[in-house]
Amino acid sequence: MTGRVGLRDQWVWARWSWSFQTAHPPDTVAAMDFLYHLAAAATQAAPAATAPSKGFAIAWFDVLVVLVMLVAIRNGRKRGLSEELLPLGQWVAIIAVNALVNGPSARGLANFTKLSLFWSHLVVFVFLGVLVFLAFIWLKSAVGGKLLEADYFGRHEFSLGIVAALVRYGCMLVAALAILNSRLYTPEPVIAIQRERAASDIRIALLPAWSTVQHQVFAESESGKFIRARASFLLITSTPYDSLELRASGEGRRRERLVEEAIDGGKPKPAPSTNAPPK
Predict the structure, then answer these.
(1) Is 267 left (phi over 0), alpha (psi -120 to 50) or beta?
(2) Are 152 and 82 in contact (CB under 8 A)?
(3) 244 close to 194: Cβ distance less than 8 angstroms
(4) Is residue 4 situated within a structural domain?
């Protein structure tokens, strides 16, 4: 508002001085009035033009995805479908098996071993991945040579190899995102305590925090947003890291009371007396 008033005052003074000292044809005055209104409109629209855009934005993870896909295209064109088929099946099996049984298996492991649900999810994920990996090692020794010797795919060998490599590398990215999504970050005080602990060790402080990378991938990158919105069933369910997060909730306090009662022989701990001792 101040900029527009200053511009108007300057224009009124300049127009009065010019019209007082010189002749002023109507078309010239009209042209100058038009220029004044055009400058005023530009001044008014300037703040809106500098407002931040909320449209499509590319983050570092989107660039990483593009680079990984370029590597996949190069390797798929070089190796062909005969070499890509078994690795493709291995990574598709890892993602599919974990999507189907990771949740129930992790809950069962947490109840049986008293591990936190966070660590149970990761242990099950790695264990199932190792099982699938060993199964495909045996499968490769059984039929891998036959795939390489026979020309099953003909002239489509290398074009299909590019597609297989893109899917395989995509599954590898999804596996990394599943692990990244496994950690749940709530509430705010707990996050502050964890950051203070990480800052105390310079070796950890030099690395980006898990919560920072998770936010940059799933909240700032377009590919991360898409995967979390459309393929969240392929990711590990986000759970707290340990009892530190649970203490902020009623469930955490309830578990602590149960542990204290078990230590005291199943009897509830008596409340402390508020009466002062006699003098």
Answers:
(1) beta
(2) yes
(3) yes
(4) no
Distance CA 10, CA 13 (A): 5
- Residue carrying structure tokens 């997060």: 245
Q: Which two tokens stand for residue 117?
A: 């649900």
- pTM of the model as a whole: 0.63
Q: Which of 105, 108, 117, 102 is nearest to 255 (CA)?
A: 117
Whether 229 is covered by a domain: the verdict is yes
The answer to the question of residue 279 being in a domain is: no
Residues facing residue 183 across a β-bridge = 239
Domain assignment of residue 139, given as a range:
61-263
Counting beta carbons within 10 angstroms of the beta carbon of residue 47, is it exposed (0 to 12), middle (13 to 18) or buried (19 or more)? exposed
Q: Is residue 52 a contact partner of residue 213, using CB atoms and an 8 Å limit?
A: no
* Cβ neighbours for 22, distance < 8 A, ≥ 6 positions apart: none
Q: What is the pLDDT of residues 91-139, one digit of tens each?
A: 999 999 999 999 999 999 988 888 888 999 999 999 999 999 999 999 9
Q: Is residue 86 part of a domain?
A: yes
Beta pairing partners, 239: 183
What are the backbone dihedrals phi and psi of residue 239, each rounded to the nearest 5 degrees, phi first? -140, 160
